[in-house]
Amino acid sequence: MSIEVRVPTILRPHTGGQKLVTGEGETLAELFDSLDAQHTGLKARVVTDEGALHRFVNVYINDEDVRFIGGLEAKLADGDSITILPAVAGGM
Amino acid sequence: MVAHARADHPDEACGLIAGPEGTGEPQRHIPMINAARSATFYEFDAEEWKQVYDRMWDNDEEVVVAYHSHTHTEAYPSRSDTGIASELGLPGAHYVLVTTKDPDIAEVRSYRIADGVVNEEPIEVTGAPEAVQSYKFAHTPDSTVYDCP
Q1: Residue A89 is nearest to which of B43, B62, B92, comparing CB atoms?
Q2: How far is B109 from A68, CA to CA, in rounded Å?
Q3: Which of 3.30.420.10, 3.10.20.30, 3.30.10.10, 3.30.457.10 is the CATH number of A3-86?
Q4: Which of B81, B146, B148 is nearest to B113 (CA)?
Q5: Which of A41, B35, B74, B138 is deepest in the core (most CB within 10 A)?
Q6: How far is A45 from chain B (nearest CA, A)?
Q7: DSSP label at residue A42
Q8: Where are the transmembrane segments (chain A) (predicted)?
């Protein structure tokens, strides 16, 4: 099962500059494990040591924000497209 | 950017200017929803941000400017602005701050933010001096200050 992942500029140093990479997994957590095997350090930028998504990163399965569909336990299907984006935020 | 910040005052406004990848040219202004709807915090709406990003991806565009407003403080990145941009930010983007704390004078300043370090950069008004002048006059003379030491 091959899953396509759109990598934001900030994480491209982990993918040798590639915008689009592929990985495998039944769930998002497994996908990040598979990605990290090829692109060292990528997972740690998205997933905390405790195994949750970082607060200021958005991950989407197709158009769905994964926070609303099970987070890292969200199920993947062949042909899904994953997008990782920085959450743009701040305040005074 | 100033008009958007004024329109959303007293809440913080936020948005982007996108441009063709690799050119650094800000060409397409994209006002964004502040999902926090707050006078002290801003956050892109996750759903809108995905739609905007998809369009940029299809157009081979990148974020050239990421701006937001401060409604009660200086046009200078706050601790949370710097922290969040450093943790997972938009490398290559100019982080532009607009303050609307003064009802008559909007101050606009630009920064690079990386690894917890903020570097201010000068803003040079180029390209369409008439447009800038007419904007200033439309909003009373001297209403826009491009302030940079």
Answers
A1: B43
A2: 36
A3: 3.10.20.30
A4: B81
A5: B35
A6: 8
A7: H
A8: none
User: Which range (A46-60, B36-50, B103-117, B122-136) has the least confidence?
Assistant: B122-136
Question: Which domain covers residue B69, as residue numbers?
Answer: 2-146
**Number of residues written out for chain A:** 92
Whole-angstrom distance, CA of residue A76 vs CA of residue B18:
31
Query: Which residue does chain A place closest to B72, by CA atoms?
Result: A92
pTM: 0.89
Q: Residue A67 — φ and ψ, nearest 5°?
A: -60, -25
CATH number where B73 lies: 3.40.140.10
Strands A20-23 and A3-6, by their bridges, are antiparallel
Chain position carrying tokens 């099962």: A1
Bridge partners of A9, per DSSP, are none
ipTM above 0.85, yes or no: yes
Domain total of chain B: 1
Cβ <8 Å between A90 and B46: no
